[in-house]
């Protein structure tokens, strides 16, 4: 390594430069509209890369999963190419709000606190957030979670749910994504994790017979996300979702990944609007 | 899109961020201490009479210096439980930092020791100095002086590296920041602010090391 | 681990190599400019460049990537993720290389500059024909050392979600649940990339040490 020669003055200048950056950043950028996306010829979709069957990259390097299928269908509806940007759980909303992606089809559970930061569409799939623990243990109440070291994916719905429901002094470890949190359970770094209904399939492959879903938190619905105030693209997604619910396309995707009938979706959720204003 | 910067979550989270800085210092200081132990031990073993020991140290240095810290920390974190050792993320991070810094320390310390010529030691003895005096004045102090700049800038680098320990959920500044980010979704504001924090941390460290260097290692030798 | 998974890791390796090359070349071009400005003899310019260097050497690469990754999009530059990441590495590398090369330009004996001036060589030719060729030779070991650092640093692109070798490893390890095997292989791939460079760097260093004796 080179010897660092840093004077007080140069650090001050560096600090000043870093502080000045936000001033440069206030330049407004244009909202994305369906017309713009069509003109561009492609839609940039933020998606999960390591959370099967929602969104994952296959070992052949192809983006796949339920979210990928729905996003591809939406792109087809617009008549454009789809470009996937696999995101870490915790980076999904920042990637959207800072304009890295046009839209999120990224296992985004519709939560009121998120609705303050992004615009949700109508729900297109349902999910349940669960607490997974050792099979042999008796876990029936939220209080029981306090006995475990619990892993979650940073900033995911299970992070919110476990943090909210577990006793205050519970040890919660937060990892960069679904995959490392499952890895932590499998390797024994944590004894329990928060996850979704599909986690158990994957855990069974690695440590069969040892874990099971112990607690169910509230049922959640996933929607697509756009930036706040972008009315046109939100409207386009909503009418697309209505269309695939009506014409059976959504059921086909459900059959492929969820293997259950399409859920009944609520017309409204507390604290969340489906339509941009 | 019209993004408005909003630093409120950062300001509200300031106490937590400052605690996170302490966590970063803890990781860095413990990591450095372990790195020095590994460094000194490694230098002794590196010149061992037993060839396989020398090879092992050499291989250790090369492997650690030529692979990314992120891969090392994942490996250690997921490997330790298989060896029956289940440590919390923070001790694991300290071990990983110590191993990483130690590999560099071995090379740096070794260079310093080699910079002392045999002739100087003989000259010292010829001048009638005690063995202890020779070691202190002719071997230790000049060697420390020689390695001090590179060792300390390696330590500053190690301190910056602690941010990667957030990947295994160790307690330090970056993980606290990520917590605030995932509650507020203000990634740019949060990361921008803690970037400044790191700048201050590394500046304080450099000043501190510089002060030590002027106090103890400036010519003429006292 | 099957052939498919291994091929996927190799795809990740390809991005690691590309990212390193782009960062190194971009960083080299800007780094040279930084180094020259840093020794320009104009106090204001020297201070600004030294501030630039202090900023990048005094903060974690991970933070630099986060800030550049999100910051570029905020100023309205909608670039592909990989270009944004490449810009981050270019800035990072330019600060480090600038500092390394500043040191080696200053290590060229002053007499060389004076002699060149006496021969009435202009700045461009003085730098290009006299100073830089010597400075580059002096800086080679440190430059190669930094290249190794840069290759390893590209692993952090994984945390912002770019699928290079480390993230590919994460994905594969999550499919087959053998973290030790996967991260072992990932480590070996990095090692194969970096070790020859390290060996070459220390070979040059030794040769120069001998020549200097």
TrEMBL record, chain A:
<feature type="domain" description="Solute-binding protein family 3/N-terminal">
    <location>
        <begin position="42"/>
        <end position="261"/>
    </location>
</feature>
<keyword id="KW-0732">Signal</keyword>
<feature type="signal peptide">
    <location>
        <begin position="1"/>
        <end position="31"/>
    </location>
</feature>
<dbReference type="InterPro" id="IPR006311">
    <property type="entry name" value="TAT_signal"/>
</dbReference>
<protein>
    <submittedName>
        <fullName>Polar amino acid transport system substrate-binding protein</fullName>
    </submittedName>
</protein>
<dbReference type="Pfam" id="PF00497">
    <property type="entry name" value="SBP_bac_3"/>
</dbReference>
<dbReference type="InterPro" id="IPR001638">
    <property type="entry name" value="Solute-binding_3/MltF_N"/>
</dbReference>
Automatic annotation (TrEMBL), chain B:
<dbReference type="InterPro" id="IPR035906">
    <property type="entry name" value="MetI-like_sf"/>
</dbReference>
<feature type="transmembrane region" description="Helical">
    <location>
        <begin position="146"/>
        <end position="170"/>
    </location>
</feature>
<feature type="transmembrane region" description="Helical">
    <location>
        <begin position="66"/>
        <end position="85"/>
    </location>
</feature>
<dbReference type="InterPro" id="IPR000515">
    <property type="entry name" value="MetI-like"/>
</dbReference>
<keyword id="KW-0472">Membrane</keyword>
<feature type="transmembrane region" description="Helical">
    <location>
        <begin position="190"/>
        <end position="209"/>
    </location>
</feature>
<dbReference type="InterPro" id="IPR043429">
    <property type="entry name" value="ArtM/GltK/GlnP/TcyL/YhdX-like"/>
</dbReference>
<dbReference type="InterPro" id="IPR010065">
    <property type="entry name" value="AA_ABC_transptr_permease_3TM"/>
</dbReference>
<protein>
    <submittedName>
        <fullName>Polar amino acid transport system permease protein</fullName>
    </submittedName>
</protein>
<keyword id="KW-0813">Transport</keyword>
<feature type="domain" description="ABC transmembrane type-1">
    <location>
        <begin position="21"/>
        <end position="209"/>
    </location>
</feature>
<keyword id="KW-1003">Cell membrane</keyword>
<dbReference type="Pfam" id="PF00528">
    <property type="entry name" value="BPD_transp_1"/>
</dbReference>
<feature type="transmembrane region" description="Helical">
    <location>
        <begin position="16"/>
        <end position="45"/>
    </location>
</feature>
<keyword id="KW-1133">Transmembrane helix</keyword>
UniProtKB/TrEMBL annotation, chain C:
<keyword id="KW-1133">Transmembrane helix</keyword>
<keyword id="KW-0812">Transmembrane</keyword>
<dbReference type="InterPro" id="IPR035906">
    <property type="entry name" value="MetI-like_sf"/>
</dbReference>
<protein>
    <submittedName>
        <fullName>Polar amino acid transport system permease protein</fullName>
    </submittedName>
</protein>
<keyword id="KW-0472">Membrane</keyword>
<keyword id="KW-1003">Cell membrane</keyword>
<keyword id="KW-0813">Transport</keyword>
<feature type="transmembrane region" description="Helical">
    <location>
        <begin position="81"/>
        <end position="101"/>
    </location>
</feature>
<dbReference type="InterPro" id="IPR010065">
    <property type="entry name" value="AA_ABC_transptr_permease_3TM"/>
</dbReference>
<dbReference type="Pfam" id="PF00528">
    <property type="entry name" value="BPD_transp_1"/>
</dbReference>
<feature type="transmembrane region" description="Helical">
    <location>
        <begin position="15"/>
        <end position="39"/>
    </location>
</feature>
<dbReference type="InterPro" id="IPR043429">
    <property type="entry name" value="ArtM/GltK/GlnP/TcyL/YhdX-like"/>
</dbReference>
<dbReference type="InterPro" id="IPR000515">
    <property type="entry name" value="MetI-like"/>
</dbReference>
<comment type="similarity">
    <text>Belongs to the binding-protein-dependent transport system permease family. HisMQ subfamily.</text>
</comment>
<feature type="domain" description="ABC transmembrane type-1">
    <location>
        <begin position="13"/>
        <end position="201"/>
    </location>
</feature>
